[in-house]
Specification:
mainly alpha; two-stranded antiparallel ribbon; 2 strands; about 65% helix; globular
Length: about 475
């Protein structure tokens, strides 16, 4: 834990240099944040230098679960010191960034210091691929137990796939691919008219599917179709399994994507939803031009289903049924092994196939039907895990919705707030359409929990609520 905190302290360095470049006089604050975090990490590391640092299967859940809460505290320092947020608000903003949720309590982004804006975007970028994956890639000391840590943090049911025999190389391949796509995205934004600062900042939140912007109006600030299409392409890239990106780049073969059943399902789902939303916008009279309806339907559907939350239009003021439908599709999410939130497409495909199998069984009771993924049968352990995950995901969503209603939100705002946080989406409906500022402090802490439990996909945190866990540890 000390090593992880010490490494995180380096995240303040770019903002120190940006503060000097833009002369916003915040370099001293960021230097203080760096020193405080680094010293805390080093002290914790030094005090346990002679301890047994072997990361067992049981310990990996505790390390991964705790680190997201602890970094939420250290990462909140700039928000506390620069714009004087309360502790609850500062932790909410930091956890929202690290989990790539994109929910915010800050307004007036256009006039905030650039060093702080960059820091906020960078938090999302670091959290996108995963703090643990980064640490495993750069700190060889964590090679022992590195696979256990990555399995506890990595999204999706297929956690045993490796790109290389050594977990260190797998982590590095993932991060090299991540950095390459971020640079490509930034260059595309810059070519289509963004300033270099905005291009880099938005590339970080696009590839991480985080959704933070340097402007209150988000992507709508630029009112540029080219920029919107760049965002669509790279939001999709962030929501695709990064192992597929790596294989396509390594083999220089784009057909590697289409051979993956989850990717094909993802594209088909988006296509049908985009068409449905566009027709809904056009025939409801919200837009009098079908091309305009398709433009904003494409952007918002991709933004929502990838759990990015960037906005080219305000879907909360669209016809009510379309807003609710968009919140519901956020539960689908992106592909396993991506930076996107939600349940993941592979799980949705499995449940759909399972339902269809039951219908076929009613027609042919003696026949045997097997569920397959990419031509291989889904084993019973994976199937049981998916069903349990879906149950707990829905159960926690309902539980948190009732708790948010108890804090004073109306039903629509409460449900959309929970959906926005547990799916790592960001914007919701009603009172939380643009900001979570008015949510009570208990409500914000509930949503902090929802963001982390959604990012770590339920089980990593739920296992720690079982009494047997603490006997094992």
């Amino acid at each position: 834990m000390g090593a992880l905190i010490g490494l995180f302290s380096l995240s303040f360095i770019p903002s120190i240099f940006l503060s000097l470049i833009y002369k916003d006089h915040l370099e001293t604050i960021f230097l203080f944040c760096l020193a405080t975090t680094a010293i805390s990490g080093l002290l914790l590391w030094a005090m346990n230098l002679r301890a047994d640092n072997t990361i067992t299967h049981v310990k990996s859940f505790l390390v991964v679960g705790l680190i997201w809460f602890i970094l939420g505290g250290f990462g909140a320092l700039p928000f506390l010191l620069v714009i004087k947020l309360s502790f609850t608000e500062a932790v909410f903003e930091t956890v929202s960034a690290l989990t790539t949720t994109g929910a915010t309590v800050i307004s007036g982004l256009d006039v905030l210091p650039k060093s702080l804006l960059y820091y906020r975007q960078q938090l999302q970028w670091l959290g996108g691929m995963g703090i643990i994956v980064l640490v495993v890639a750069v700190l060889p000391m964590l090679n022992i137990g590195g696979m256990r840590l990555m399995k506890a943090e990595t999204p999706g049911p297929m956690k045993d796939e490796k790109l290389a025999p050594r977990i260190l190389n797998t982590a590095r391949y993932l991060w090299v691919t991540y950095v390459f796509l971020t640079i490509l995205c930034a260059a595309a934004y810059w070519v289509f008219g963004m300033s270099l600062f905005d291009a880099v900042s938005h590339a970080m939140s696009t590839i991480s599917t985080g959704g933070f912007s340097t402007h209150d109006a988000s992507i709508a600030f630029f009112d540029n179709v080219g920029i919107e299409m760049v965002a669509v392409v790279f939001m999709l890239a962030g929501a695709v399994n990064f192992a597929l990106h790596f294989l396509a780049l390594r083999d220089r073969n784009v057909f590697s994507y289409w051979r993956d059943q989850e990717f094909r399902g993802f594209i088909y789902i988006i296509f049908f939803i985009v068409v449905m939303i566009a027709f809904g916008l056009f025939f409801s009279g919200y837009y009098d031009n079908m091309l305009t309806a398709l433009r904003f339907s494409l952007f918002e559907v991709v933004s929502i289903i990838t759990s990015t939350g960037l906005g080219a239009a305000d879907f909360s003021i669209w016809p009510a049924y379309l807003g609710v439908f968009l919140i519901l599709i956020s539960f689908i999410g992106g592909c396993a092994g991506s930076t996107a939130g939600g349940m993941k497409v592979v799980r949705v495909l499995y449940i759909t196939k399972g339902a269809w199998r039951e219908i076929r069984r009613l027609m042919h009771p003696r026949a045997e039907f097997h569920i397959k993924h990419n031509g291989r049968r889904v084993n019973h352990d994976t199937a049981d895990s998916i069903r349990a995950f879906m149950f707990f995901y829905c159960f926690i969503t309902v539980l948190l919705t009732m708790a948010m209603v108890a804090t004073g939100l109306d039903y629509a705002s409460a449900f959309s707030a929970v959906a926005a946080c547990i799916n790592d989406l960001g914007p919701g409906l009603g009172e939380v359409a643009s900001s979570f500022k008015t949510v009570t402090s208990p409500g914000k802490w509930l949503m902090i929990f929802a963001m982390i439990v959604g990012r770590l996909e339920i089980f990593t945190l739920l296992v720690m609520f079982h009494p047997l866990y603490w006997r094992e540890i």
